[in-house]
Amino acid sequence: MTQKNQTLGEFIIDNQSSFQYSSGELSKLINAIRLAAKVVNHQVNKAGLVDILGAAGDTNVQGEDQQKLDVFANDKFIQTLRNREIVCGIASEEEDSFITINSNDKKHQNKYVVLIDPLDGSSNVDVNVSVGTIFSIYRRITPVGTPVTLEDFLQPGNKQVAAGYVVYGTSTMLVYTTGDGVNGFTLNPALGTFYLSHPNMQFPETGKIYSVNEGNYVHFHQGVKDYIKYCQQEEGDRPYTSRYIGSLVSDFHRNMIKGGIYMYPKSSVTESGKLRLLYECNPMAFLAEQANGLARGGRNRIMDIQPTELHQRVPFFCGSRKMVEKLQEFLDKYH
Ligand code: AHG
Ligand code: MN
Ligand code: MN
């Protein structure tokens, strides 16, 4: 049963049985992410004090090196998942190759792999603007009892069993899906508890916001340029409003609530765009589709792309259904 103001802990227990592979493992995994998110949140909130407490590269009073926040977030998520022995492997934006998790008594028995962008929008930290964490969860393909392989991570997004993000904003929220809609939980920092604040989140059918780094306009392909001009035209409910934070999590979150489209196209200088398929685009695509939105990578559905590399980049268009369909019409004109 979904009830507003439920805690995330209660929600996980209540909804565990509705998950098709229910064995409690996925619930433990979401719980571990919840815990790591709280630790990272605490650190993100202190980021503005960095000049007072010491910059990255300095040594703190305990004699420990101060870390950059994306390294800190990476370590915390990996450490939390590793300590709880609930996944068999982790891939991260901050790690060149995947990490195999194994303990003596578990012998590669865990079923899930996690892919994360530990700190998304990290350049925003220095200027006190929202950042996030993105995660994507799959069941392994290789048999339990054996070490994970690259194949376990290179699965198309349509095989995800759960995905979500944390946005460290004016309030901190954890938003996730296990394939049964999208729910958002807001952290009460005084208690350290997440409460269900946004049950069953849905992209409005259409919206008035377009989000793209327009500084790259001259490098975009003609279809994208034409769509941007369409957004700016005075007709009907247009011109639309341009909003771009430069942190995918925050831009997505706003667009899901208000209605809008996010675009990171390929261009004449970045042939595959910028965003990473496995730990940025796929989890956001899963959330978008679960929230009645769309996510495409040019002409194809993001979640149907067969990945070939851990850090693969793809063009990404995501948001309110009607807006993505309209963009598609423009892209199709040039094919
Ligand atoms: P990260 O901080 O994890 O490297 O991700 C930054 C990404 C994404 O969050 C954002 O939408 C995009 O980069 C912004 O890129 P531009 O500065 O090129 O617009
Ligand atoms: Mn990112
Ligand atoms: Mn990152």
TrEMBL record:
Q: Name one GO molecular function term.
A: fructose 1,6-bisphosphate 1-phosphatase activity
Is the keyword Hydrolase assigned to this protein?
A: yes
| All residue ranges annotated as the Fructose-1-6-bisphosphatase class 1 C-terminal domain in the record | 204-331
**Where is it chiefly localized?**
cytoplasm
Reactions mediated catalytically? beta-D-fructose 1,6-bisphosphate + H2O = beta-D-fructose 6-phosphate + phosphate
Keyword annotations from UniProtKB, A to Z: Carbohydrate metabolism, Cytoplasm, Hydrolase, Magnesium, Metal-binding
List ligand-binding residues for Mg(2+) 1: E93, D117, L119
Cofactor note as given = Binds 2 magnesium ions per subunit.
Names of the cofactor(s):
Mg(2+)
Top-rank taxon, per record: Bacteria
GO biological processes: fructose 1,6-bisphosphate metabolic process; fructose 6-phosphate metabolic process; fructose metabolic process; gluconeogenesis; sucrose biosynthetic process
Name the enzyme group at the top EC level: hydrolase
Occurrences of domain Fructose-1-6-bisphosphatase class I N-terminal (ranges) = 7-199
Q: Which GO terms describe its cellular component?
A: cytosol
**Could you give the subunit structure recorded for this chain?**
Homotetramer.
Which NCBIfam families does the annotation name?
A: PRK09293.1-1 (NF006778), PRK09293.1-3 (NF006779)
Give the HAMAP family listed for this entry. Answer: FBPase_class1
Similarity comment: Belongs to the FBPase class 1 family.
What's this protein's name?
Fructose-1,6-bisphosphatase class 1
Record organism: Aggregatimonas sangjinii
What is this protein's gene name? Answer: fbp
